[in-house]
């Protein structure tokens, strides 16, 4: 049952004089439930959600929040198809999916600037710049935008942008380490930190060095349908979530402990959590140098949209490259932040 339908049911129940949940003579309204889907195996990018839940911020906002684990179906797809109310997704993923017709809208910037990069083993001395990736094998994650982005970076460096792709998902990093693939994409504040802790020597190419504008790497998105039907719930959820990330920045040790306690089976290396969180905070990724937490920079969103459009990465529902620039202001909104 959607939240809109749930509220309608409540109103009808009250109008008819019948209790929704009865106990003696008292009437109790059900706590609205919100679902949020993760974009990857649980990591420090998600910490604000768990902090907000387990510190009671969602409860104080009158919400019951269910955090859905990562699955083979992307969070953006789950949101667009009304399986989840909110989802964690990347900026490029948001832009490509929405342009292709998915009902998505970004409402919160988890990460304030770019954390992604092209990475390869440091021993590969023959790889000096992106053009040297031509003809090699990429360990990918199944999103169409990955190959398009990497190709534009290679061509920007003077290469052809031709390489083989093997879709591996979470196994890509093991494949890189054992030499099964030549390069992949990683998040510097998670996989990059983990590689350092393991003593794995890597080198990388930062997107911005090859023409890609800075971006909010990680977002929280919803659907227009949900936002229009549930404006109060959406605002309550996003504002409580921001409290979770604010608490994380101010109290990183307690936040890390909460994240680990909530995910004991998945997060078995406390040193990784601590080091990753330190990288996120010290690098001003969770809270920008100007103090922003959660707010999306319109200029930054427009810039990455323009880049994706001009690079031919954005395609319509029929898979055709866009010939007319979309109105990127419709792709995001800070309104739920209050």
TrEMBL record:
Record pathway: Cofactor biosynthesis; thiamine diphosphate biosynthesis
Signal peptide: 1-29
Highest taxon listed in the record's lineage: Bacteria
GO MF annotations, alphabetized: metal ion binding; transferase activity
A biological-process GO annotation: thiamine biosynthetic process
Protein's UniProt keywords contain Repeat: no
Swiss-Prot/TrEMBL keywords: Iron, Metal-binding, Pyridoxal phosphate, Signal, Thiamine biosynthesis, Transferase
Role this protein plays: Responsible for the formation of the pyrimidine heterocycle in the thiamine biosynthesis pathway. Catalyzes the formation of hydroxymethylpyrimidine phosphate (HMP-P) from histidine and pyridoxal phosphate (PLP). The protein uses PLP and the active site histidine to form HMP-P, generating an inactive enzyme. The enzyme can only undergo a single turnover, which suggests it is a suicide enzyme.
Family: Belongs to the NMT1/THI5 family.
Protein name in the entry: Thiamine pyrimidine synthase
Organism encoding this protein: Rhizobium loti
């Amino acid at each position: 049952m959607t939240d809109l339908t749930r509220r309608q049911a409540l109103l009808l129940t009250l109008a008819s004089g019948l209790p929704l949940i009865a106990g003696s003579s008292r009437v109790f309204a059900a706590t609205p439930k919100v679902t949020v889907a993760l974009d990857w195996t649980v990591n420090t990018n998600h910490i604000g959600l768990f902090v907000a839940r387990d510190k009671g911020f969602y409860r104080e906002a009158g919400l019951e929040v269910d955090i859905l684990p990562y699955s083979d179906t992307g969070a953006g797809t789950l949101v667009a198809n009304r399986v989840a109310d909110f989802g964690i997704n990347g900026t490029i993923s948001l832009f490509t999916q929405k342009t292709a017709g998915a009902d998505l809208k970004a409402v919160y910037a988890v990460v304030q600037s770019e954390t992604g990069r092209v990475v390869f083993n440091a021993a590969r001395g023959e790889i000096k710049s992106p053009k040297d990736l031509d003809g090699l094998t990429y360990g990918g994650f199944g999103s169409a935008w990955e190959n398009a982005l990497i190709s534009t970076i290679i061509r920007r460096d003077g290469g052809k942008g031709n390489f083989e792709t093997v879709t591996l998902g979470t196994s890509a990093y093991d494949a890189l380490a054992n030499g099964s693939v030549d390069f992949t994409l990683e998040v510097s504040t998670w996989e990059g930190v983990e590689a350092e802790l393991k003593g794995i020597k890597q080198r990388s190419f930062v997107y911005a060095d090859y023409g890609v504008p800075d971006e909010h790497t990680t977002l929280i998105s919803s659907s227009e349908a949900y936002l229009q039907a549930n404006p109060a719930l959406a605002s309550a959820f996003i504002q409580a979530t921001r409290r979770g990330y604010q608490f994380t920045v101010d109290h990183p040790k307690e936040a890390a402990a909460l994240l680990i306690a909530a995910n004991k089976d998945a997060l078995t290396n406390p040193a990784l959590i601590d080091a990753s969180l330190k990288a996120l905070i010290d690098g001003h990724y969770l809270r920008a140098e100007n103090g922003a937490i959660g707010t999306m920079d319109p200029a930054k969103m427009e810039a990455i949209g323009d880049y994706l459009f001009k690079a031919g990465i954005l395609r319509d529902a029929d898979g055709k490259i866009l010939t007319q620039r979309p109105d990127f202001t419709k792709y995001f909104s800070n309104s739920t932040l209050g």
